[in-house]
Design a protein that fits this description.
By secondary structure, the chain is α+β, with helices and mostly antiparallel strands. It is 33% helix and 24% strand. The N terminus is likely disordered. The structure holds alpha-L-fucopyranose (FUC). The site of alpha-L-fucopyranose has 11 residues, from loops.
Length: 778
């Protein structure tokens, strides 16, 4: 849990109110679109974790199972990890660098990998796990025979609810995770006096745990294995019934309503400091809400949440399926992929997941956001930087949640510190670098194994997010603050790039094309990333008019970096050598980075490379894991082939659990993306791919409906953000643009294009410009 910035919260609440007022003033038709009900809904309780429904406030997350006789709420606090502050840099690693490079240059890959494995890897070689925190259980007495069961999460207010009837009494439950109050609130009601009877207790799967019960509260203390972090969670209950306790459980009898507030915190402060005091933070947080009734807490939560959520809306129409249970819709979609509202729901759900897992002041979303129920989660539930972490943030600017990008920038700040130690120890350079995995202790050295752990693109890729944030927001203060991060990443590469003895080009060596082909000299992806970083840094220094001496030294280097090449199969080469296997269906498609999320390869400037990139993607094929499918959707959108993108969306939104019992890429019943296992990157990457079908702005102009699939002939988007500081709202019907509205947030010149028409116009900050479907101004 995080310390709160009260001013920030006040501002957010005020903003929320303003938005509510503006919203009320809108014409009726638009209000209807705004109010479209986006929900995940079910007619049975969850049995598996991937059927339970997530809530979160950026740091405090929970999965709600919605059982009738027993409710289970599994919860997380984002700073509970194994391990301890640690410098992962391997002192002396750099002594082997020249030899590894030489071996790679002479084709001795095995020897190079062996040497790197022995001398060049992180110390220790593995990073550590994100942990679950605890479990809250509620046993309801005699609720076995029930009717009217309903379970849902409503994305409009971020409240999860359960309702059912037993013996003529209606029971309801609401659960929310409040950002302003930093608590999870659970509200229980019964429609009849004294009908609410239940037992309540906390537990955890940690070996080292204890639970203390007092009059109306319970406290859980957990300590992680192999680490220095401990966590405290307390719940407090207010009810109009009786409270007693026995056998480690709170017993509530003869109530008709009860509200439980739960909070949790650890001693983690930052990657170097574990002197936090959860024993103080937890009671303080709870004492702030203990006098508020549930309705107050709920209103504050909704106002805060909607200040973010209501900025953007998407709708593709509704062909009558939106009322069906979500698990059934996923099943039906796999059979007949026509449920346009489900795709809009997918985008809004991704926005919900962003708001719930990545708020200013919290940690960046991990492979699982903030939701994890395992002591040894897959891939540590940490941060994989060779695709997954960045994918989590692909849609964030476009779908108007720019401030939710901030946790990633904080992570980059941390990495510029730990990564500087790695740059020195492993490469003897200045600046900072991060390899393919990062944990809460900000490990930046190469982990696991030399054939995939030594990947050099991390600092470059992460830095593009700083520049992209500037492009979308045009916030020069931000750029000035973050510029040192970009320039120090560029500084690293300017010293690290190595003149290839075979070709004379500057190349990235040793490295890896994620996670295929082993340790190599000069994977294409790295060069695309480094060129992008250099170009962005040069641009940034021009915008800020600073550091021009340094950035002018980068320019000539760009021309010397090994270029993109077309190989003998017509493909874009993944490596320096023309050795791509057209039969390979590997999930990573890293050499197409310059198509998406990069832009170096595009139809206007490099049509031949674009053709080759498309050929490469065709060879890779349409199958894939969750995030891989999601990336391919983005590629096909950039290739302006909406129908092909839709084909992959069909797979992404089909059940992960196949009829034969196997689990593959797709969606779980709670719409979590399946790699498998659950990885949240596919949710965000899939949403980004849908948005890329509708609007692209990477080439200094706003392209409308560049890759509209025939399955989405009508729709409306409002509040979508384009680079240059524009907020765009538009409607289409019969696959044809009907109207566009552009809000200029900073007063830049706007270039708008639809099909063959392109218009350019000057704008004034704060003004809105309206056009019909042929881009004639209204
Ligand atoms: C990368 C991928 C894996 C997985 C892991 C978390 O290493 O290649 O498929 O997604 O990240």
């Amino acid at each position: 849990m995080k310390k709160q910035n009260n001013n920030l919260i006040k501002n957010i609440s005020l903003l929320g109110l303003c938005l509510v007022l503006t919203f009320c003033a809108k014409p009726k038709e638009e209000v209807l679109q705004q109010e479209e009900d986006y929900k995940l809904q079910y007619t049975t309780p969850a049995e598996k974790w991937t059927e339970a429904l997530p809530i979160g406030n950026g740091s405090l997350g929970a999965m709600i199972f919605g059982g009738v006789s027993q409710e289970h709420i599994q919860f997380n606090e984002e700073t509970l990890w194994r391990g301890k502050p640690h410098n992962y840099a391997n002192a002396g690693a750099g002594d082997s660098l020249d030899e590894i490079r030489k071996l790679l240059a002479t084709g001795e890959q095995r020897k190079a990998q062996k040497l790197a494995q022995d001398n060049f890897m992180s110390d220790p070689i593995k990073q550590i796990h994100y942990q679950p925190f605890g479990d809250l259980y509620i046993d309801f007495i005699n609720h076995d025979n029930y009717t009217n069961y309903k379970r849902e999460i409503n994305l409009n207010d971020a409240i999860s609810s359960v309702s059912y009837t037993v013996d003529g009494v209606d029971y309801s439950r609401e659960v929310l995770s409040s950002f302003p109050d930093q608590i999870i609130a659970i509200n229980l009601t019964a429609s009849k006096n004294k009908a609410l009877n239940f037992d309540l207790w906390l537990d955890a799967i940690h070996e080292d745990k204890s639970v203390m019960t007092s009059n109306n509260s319970q406290t859980l203390v957990v300590k992680v294995k192999d680490g220095v972090l401990h966590g405290i969670s307390t719940l407090k209950i207010n009810t109009n019934g009786n409270i007693s306790h026995a056998n480690g459980k709170l017993e509530i009898t003869e109530a008709s309503k009860a509200t439980i507030y739960l909070t949790a915190a650890t001693n983690y402060i930052d990657f170097e400091d574990v002197s936090g005091q959860p024993e103080k933070i937890v009671p303080e947080t709870l004492s702030k809400v203990s006098n508020s009734n549930y309705e107050e807490v709920k209103l504050k939560h909704i106002t805060d949440y909607q200040s973010l959520y209501n900025r953007f809306k998407i709708s593709f129409g509704d062909n009558g399926k939106s009322g069906n249970p979500t698990d059934q819709r996923i099943q039906d979609f796999s059979e007949t992929p026509s449920d346009p509202q489900l795709l809009a729901l997918y985008v809004e759900y991704a926005r919900y997941l962003t708001i719930s897992s990545s708020r200013p002041g919290t940690k960046a979303a991990t492979l699982q956001g903030i939701w994890n129920d395992k002591l040894t989660p897959p891939w540590f539930s940490s941060y994989t930087t060779n695709i997954n972490l960045e994918m989590n943030y692909w849609p964030v600017e476009m779908y108007n949640l720019s401030e939710c990008h901030e946790p990633l920038f904080d992570l980059i700040e941390d990495l510029s510190v730990t990564g500087a130690k790695v740059a020195k120890a492993h490469y003897n350079t200045d600046g900072w670098i991060v390899h393919h995995n990062v944990d809460i202790w900000r490990g930046a050295a190469p982990v696991n194994a030399s054939h995939h752990g030594i990947w050099l693109g991390g600092a470059a890729w992460l830095s593009t997010h700083l520049w992209e944030h500037y492009l979308f927001t045009q916030d020069k203060d931000f750029l000035e603050k973050k510029y040192p991060l970009m320039r120090n990443a560029a500084l690293f590469y300017s010293q690290f790039l190595y003149k290839d003895p075979n070709t004379g080009y500057l190349i990235s060596s040793p490295s890896n094309s994620p996670e295929i082909g082993g340790l190599v000299a000069g994977p294409t992806m790295d060069h695309q990333l480094i060129r992008a970083l250099f170009r962005n840094t040069i641009e940034a220094s021009k915008v800020l008019n600073i550091d021009l001496d340094f950035t002018s030294s980068l320019k000539p280097m760009i021309a010397k970096i090994a270029p993109n090449k077309i190989g003998k199969h017509g493909q874009l080469q993944e490596w320096m050598q023309d050795k791509d296997d057209p039969e390979s269906h590997h999930r990573h498609v890293s050499h197409l980075w310059a198509v998406h999320p990069g832009k170096e390869i595009n139809y206007e400037d490099t049509p031949e490379l674009m053709k080759a990139a498309k050929q490469s993607l065709e060879y890779r094929g349409d199958n894939g894991t969750g995030w891989s499918l999601a990336w391919k959707i983005n590629f096909w959108s950039r290739f302006r082939d909406g129908d092909h993108a839709y084909k992959l969306l069909h797979k992404l939104l089909s059940p992960a659990e196949r009829p034969n019992g196997k689990v593959g890429g797709g969606s779980y019943p709670n719409l979590f993306d399946a790699h498998p296992p659950f990885q949240i990157d596919g949710n965000f990457g899939g949403a980004s791919g849908i948005l890329e079908m509708l609007l692209q702005s990477q080439l200094d102009k706003i392209e409308l409906l560049p890759a509209l699939p025939s399955a989405l002939p009508e729709g409306h988007v409002s509040g979508m953000v384009a680079r240059g500081g524009f907020e765009v709202s538009f409607t289409w019907k019969d696959a044809t643009l009907q109207s566009v509205e552009v809000l200029s947030k900073v007063g830049n010149k706007c270039i708008l294009t639809y099909k063959d028409k392109l218009i350019e116009f000057e704008t004034t900050k704060g003004q809105t410009y309206q056009f019909d479907g042929t881009l004639n101004q209204q």
